[in-house]
């Protein structure tokens, strides 16, 4: 840390404003777990709750105050004395107790919510801050709906709060109405116009109704704010708050524009996100910045090619900096040859020439059928390609008909030593019809010993791997096939077994299995 002016304090309100998200209520034990993790992660102030709102919230703030070792612990209070006294009692056991008191200052809030005039609000500002100072020297005052407050009146409120003993002045964009330029101007105006503004810390508290919470918060920092109120995963009222992980990493990555530092240990960000997601039951969207599942994943062939040449082509931070193990090159229909080859080599496969070209073609066909191509899919695909690479017999086309009150049948075309042969058959079931068709095209004396189906991955679009064991004159072989269509995989497996049987037969006798001509 260079000096105090370069230090940005992270005020986490996950346990207070975050819990106000509909459905995000946490138990006392869950709150303690989150608070302990935030403290270990380096958060400066933890707003642990709204003590007067319920006995449970009071207990949570009180217990967190005793538990936390490094961070300040804050309790929220309205301007009423009962709120302030309850908050003071709740944070009494904290090493660094803070009371955060607030009152609305915008015309719409004063008229419709408070039913108070400007003078009455000013009286409440002075009285509430003075009362809070009886419990702690660390008092934060907020002008609720500050960004829709008349500028002159906002200046008068802030001046009075400072004169009454507030040490932190919070300027909330309570309804997410402001824009970065406007928010910058508000903070700048207050710091320039209000007497003794240099004696306090200005804080941001921005909501995300227009998707501008993080941008507005950073604009406030550029205007001189040195505390940012935020939540893990950006949870909170309505569209949520500024996301802690996005704020912290923006400050870390863009030091050229924002030469400031926080105490947050960034490799813990991913774990913090998962913890909060688990205790609230709120899933993190896949494309969420910093901590989303896809934040360090690349599927586009152009992006993957660039990443393989130099990670800085498409990543502005290292995954390990936020606690993610490594970058993921997700193979899908947009992936290119370079990424496919790199993935195969990482898995221990080396394919060249026609074998690679055919494997890549089959991968593209598979990617068109599946949303996600997993490593297990590639193993099945490549193993299947290897065993089928030099087959005498190959499946060219398959069409199956089956259903209730319908005799299962199939239309099959096999390539036999370069010659296409086609038949139509029926059977007791679709698999029986396929196997009968193969036998009709390529007569043989081998008998079926095993037919087994396994799903490679989860989901309805999972690839199926089929194993077929054939026995002929004491010779036993097992063929395998893989495809998202189980019946196609069955045809591949049976034909693969036949090809293996041919190889065994040729090694023991000059003649192969009889081929019908």
Structure report:
The protein has 517 residues and is α/β, with parallel strands linked by helices. It folds into three domains: 4-280, TIM Barrel, CATH 3.20.20.70; 297-386, no CATH class; 391-508, Alpha-isopropylmalate synthase LeuA, regulatory domain (Double Stranded RNA Binding Domain, 2-Layer Sandwich). It contains 16 helices and 16 strands. The protein has helices at residues 28-41, 55-67, 81-90, 107-114, 118-132, 151-163, 180-193, 213-222, 244-253, 269-280, 301-309, 337-346, 353-369, 375-388, 430-441, 486-508; strands at residues 9-12, 45-49, 72-78, 97-104, 139-144, 168-173, 201-206, 227-230, 297-298, 328-329, 393-401, 409-416, 419-426, 447-455, 464-472, 475-483. An eight-stranded parallel β-barrel has the order 1-2-3-4-5-6-7-8, surrounded by nine helices. A three-stranded antiparallel β-sheet has the order 11-12-13. Strands 14-15-16 form a three-stranded antiparallel β-sheet. β1 (9-12), α1 and β2 (45-49) form a beta-alpha-beta unit. α13 packs across α14 (375-388) and α15 runs parallel beside α16 (486-508).
What are the segments in which pLDDT stays under 50 over at least 5 consecutive residues? 509-517
Question: What overall geometry do the principal axes of the alpha carbons give?
Answer: elongated
Computed CA radius of gyration, to the nearest angstrom: 33 Å
CATH architecture of the largest domain: Alpha-Beta Barrel
* Mean pLDDT over the residues: 86
**Tally of alpha and pi helices:** 16
Share of β-strand residues = 15-25%
**Structural class of the helix and strand makeup?**
alpha/beta
CATH classification, class level of the largest domain: Alpha Beta
Q: Report the biggest beta sheet as strand number plus sense, adding barrel if it closes.
A: 8 strands, parallel, barrel
Distance between the termini: 84 Å
Counting structural domains, the number is 3
Report the CATH superfamily of the largest domain: Aldolase class I
